[in-house]
Design goal:
about 450 residues; alpha+beta; 15 helices; 20 strands; nucleotide-binding
């Protein structure tokens, strides 16, 4: 097993990785910005190094500062968490070139899946279903219009290098496409340094279902079930659950087989997620993207399958076998994750501030992965995620009931937060029925 680990991230995911590292007897090193110096993950690490000011470009995305911290602390490996440098192939290559262990997939896999058009083409060649769309970038507006005409409106206009729900717009007709194309391209150039645009069929009523995969040290790729991620605002997830209430055993088998093929197509190692869109009317699903990292919503898979995915990541990186039998994976019960964000519960606009009260719920089937405690300041420099409230039950009905109780018992005062939204959602007939799609939040508002 790895002996010392530098966590190149912050907040709840850094704290969560550190927790597993310490349980395994692995020395945990945290890096932090000046703004995060008093957060729990810094305090709980065995050693902590400040790598720069609040601006992420000067701290959490500062490759040389992070590598210098690894060298000065004698860290053997680097875990990037999610976001920041987690899907940066050049960073992964540099980490390994410096003689450190990279806790993640190979740089070639990151590169292959980082461009949505290239990823679509690879998946299609591997027999993974993909939605009708372009096989090369729409280099100008005329090319975009021609592609959309062939595909059929409405279409989704996407930044090929984008991710996390950013750089996407829907065009219902040519006039809308002419407006949205330039917006998406400009956004992509500004945010990702790559203005390539993909045109793809848009499905008005669709569910977002993803599969957790793990590429093992012996070369096998295994799938640990699916997660339903259809409760979203601005194409970004708010709630995840496993198993999906929309997926039958027959459909699940197809999902998992396709996800394994996707991983095998790029020689995948370590944890990753194959994201898909499911048309509930036809039961057809289409590859959306592969996230070459640990997902925010990984706890629901951990609780349903009884595994610690961070431990499994460390074992793969160290060349060790998994703690579980890949041929005998058995899900148990139902898990739901709610992303508690520092944002108002109506418009979902960020609301940073000083946390005056922070009381986490407890009880059977309740887990809280948090990044803050009372007295901490939620700054405007980073993602608004405060904590992940995860509940389990013997079935979905019990998990929902426990979630209601847990939301009512989660006390946060200071920054704005979306707990009132979750209280509303958990009583919403559409959500409770399980028959919902990615438009549910819009219908609630």
């Amino acid at each position: 097993m790895i002996e010392s680990l530098l966590v190149a991230n912050r907040g709840e995911i850094a704290r969560r990785i550190i927790r597993t590292a310490k349980r395994l007897g692995v020395r945990a090193v945290a890096v932090h910005s000046e703004a995060d110096a008093d957060l729990p993950f810094v305090v709980e690490a065995d050693e902590a190094v400040c790598v720069g000011p609040a601006n992420p470009a000067q701290s959490y995305r500062n490759v040389e500062a992070i590598l210098a911290a690894a060298e000065s602390t004698g860290a053997q490996a680097i875990h990037p968490g999610y976001g920041f440098l987690s899907e940066n192939a050049d960073f992964a290559r540099t980490v390994q070139a410096r003689g450190l262990v990279w806790v993640g997939p190979g740089a070639d896999a990151i590169t292959a899946m980082g461009d949505k058009i290239n990823a679509r083409n690879l998946m299609a060649a591997a027999g993974v279903p993909v939605a009708p769309g372009t096989t090369e970038p729409a280099t100008d507006l005329d090319a975009a219009v021609a592609a959309a005409t062939g595909i059929g409106y409405p279409v989704m206009v996407k930044a090929a290098a984008g991710g996390g729900g950013m750089g996407m717009a829907v065009a219902a007709d040519e006039a809308a496409l002419r407006t949205e194309y330039d917006k998406v391209r400009a956004f992509a150039e500004r945010m990702f340094g790559d203005g390539s645009v993909l045109i793809e069929r848009y499905f008005p009523r669709v569910r977002h279902v993803e599969v957790q995969i793990l590429g093992l040290a012996d070369g096998r790729v295994v799938a640990l079930g699916e997660r339903e991620c259809s409760v979203q605002r601005r194409n970004q997830k708010l709630v995840e659950e496993s198993p999906s209430p929309a997926v039958s055993p027959e459909l699940r088998a197809r999902f998992l087989a396709a996800a394994v093929r996707a991983g095998e197509a790029v020689g995948y190692r370590n944890a990753g997620t194959v994201e898909c869109l499911l048309d509930p009317a036809t039961q057809e699903f289409f590859f959306l993207e592969m996230n070459t990292r640990l997902q925010v919503e990984h706890p629901v898979t951990e609780l349903v399958y009884g595994v610690d995915l961070v431990e499994e990541q460390l074992r793969v990186a160290a060349g060790l076998p998994p703690t579980f039998d890949p041929d005998a994976l058995t899900p148990r019960g139902h898990a739901i994750e709610l992303r508690i964000n520092a944002e108002d519960p109506k418009r979902f606009l960020p609301g940073p501030g000083v946390i005056g009260t922070w009381v986490e719920p407890t009880g059977e089937g309740v887990r809280v992965d948090s990044g803050y405690v009372a007295g901490n300041t939620v700054t405007p420099f980073y993602d608004s995620l405060l904590a992940k409230l995860v509940v389990t039950g013997a079935d979905r009905a019990e998990a929902i009931e426990r979630a209601r109780t847990a939301v009512a018992g989660f006390a946060v005062a200071g920054p704005k937060n979306n707990l009132p939204f979750f209280a509303e959602l958990l009583d919403n007939e559409e959500f409770v029925s399980g028959d919902y799609d990615t438009g549910i939040v819009g219908r609630m508002r």
